[in-house]
């Protein structure tokens, strides 16, 4: 199908996903996005099969698109009250 | 860019305080204002703000290298996969700490958050050891 992504492409996708995660105003979604990308990339590290790697990469890219769009939507309806986890602990 | 004289919280905030006594020398100010006209009053303001600016431009906006090093060390040590006892000031992420490239990316992201920076991908890929990280952040003009 597609060719396997290069190392730098994978790292670039990883970084983009983490950067997009930061844009979320909602604490829960932000943490989930970070957690999920780390878990997914780590699980797929060992994939040596070209087709599988390409499929995982394509999946990652579409998820990046989803995250970016959702970040915009979430920001439109962001509540004013912050989550308890974001309040600085004294 | 925030004006540098508002930077009194980083480093010695003493400078802005020192300027007050000379300004509050009421005798001089009063005579200048009621006095000879626009030129004198304007000059007072100019010298005041000139000294103000002079004192604040000599104030180093940059973070202290030691402070940068300490904060970077803290970030690395609080990364869950890192064994804090192995962290030395010249540690290499992949060779010494046994991390992989994904971990390096995560650490650079954590450093970005700590120092409120945006590190472009090309530069971030080069940061793979503690001294490089400290060097980059110390030389970055926007680090805080």
Q: What is the helix tally of chain A?
A: 3
Percentage of β-strand residues of chain B:
under 5%
| pLDDT < 50 stretches of chain B | 4-41
Radius of gyration of chain B: 23 Å
Q: How much beta of chain A, percentage-wise?
A: under 5%
- Overall pLDDT confidence of chain B: 72
Counted beta strands of chain B: 0
Span from first to last CA of chain B? 13 Å
Indicate the mean pLDDT of chain A.
89
State the domain count of chain A.
1
Written as H for each helix and E for each strand, in order along the chain, the element string of chain B is: HHHHHHH
Spans of chain A of 5+ residues with little confidence (pLDDT < 50)?
none
Share of helix of chain B, binned: 55-70%
- Most strands sheet of chain A: none
- Oligomerization category of the chains in this entry: heterodimer
Rounded radius of gyration of chain A (Å): 15 Å
**Roughly how much helix do the residues of chain A carry, as a percent range?**
55-70%
Total of DSSP H or I helical runs spanning 4+ residues of chain B: 7
By secondary-structure content and strand pairing, the structural class of chain A works out as mainly alpha
Order of helices and strands of chain A: HHH
Largest interface: A-B, 13 and 10 residues
Explained architecture:
The complex is a heterodimer of chains A (90) and B (144). With 90 residues, chain A is mainly alpha-helical. Chain A has one domain. In chain A, helix 1 packs antiparallel against helix 2. Chain A starts with 6 loop residues before the first helix and ends in a 14-residue tail after the last helix. The mean pLDDT of chain A is 89. With 144 residues, chain B is mainly alpha-helical. About 26% of the residues of chain B have low confidence. In chain B, helix 4 crosses helix 5. Chain B has 7 helices and no strands. The two termini of chain B are 13 Å apart. Chain B is globular and about 35 Å long. The chains are: A mainly alpha (90), B mainly alpha (144). At the A-B interface, helix 1 and helix 2 of A face helix 5 and helix 6 of B.
């Amino acid at each position: 199908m597609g060719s396997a992504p290069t190392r730098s492409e994978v790292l670039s996708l990883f970084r983009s996903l983490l950067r997009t995660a930061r844009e979320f105003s909602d604490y829960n979604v932000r943490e989930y996005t970070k957690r999920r990308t780390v878990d997914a990339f780590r699980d797929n590290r060992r994939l040596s099969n070209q087709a599988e790697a390409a499929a995982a990469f394509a999946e990652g890219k579409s998820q990046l698109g989803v995250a970016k769009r959702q970040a915009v939507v979430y920001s439109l309806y962001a509540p004013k009250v912050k989550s308890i986890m974001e309040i600085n602990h004294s | 860019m925030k004006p540098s004289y508002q930077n009194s919280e980083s480093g010695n905030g003493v400078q802005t305080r020192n300027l007050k006594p000379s300004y509050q020398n009421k005798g001089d100010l009063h005579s200048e204002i009621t006095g000879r006209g626009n030129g004198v009053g304007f000059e007072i303001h100019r010298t005041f703000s000139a000294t103000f600016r002079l004192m604040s431009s000599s104030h180093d906006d940059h973070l202290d290298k030691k402070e940068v090093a300490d904060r970077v060390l803290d970030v690395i040590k609080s990364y869950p996969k890192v064994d804090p006892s192995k962290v030395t000031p010249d540690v290499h992420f992949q060779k010494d700490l046994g991390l992989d490239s994904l971990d390096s990316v995560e650490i650079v992201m954590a450093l970005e958050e700590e120092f409120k920076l945006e590190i472009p991908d090309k530069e971030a890929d080069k940061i793979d050891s503690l001294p490089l990280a400290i060097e980059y952040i110390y030389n970055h003009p926007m680090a805080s």
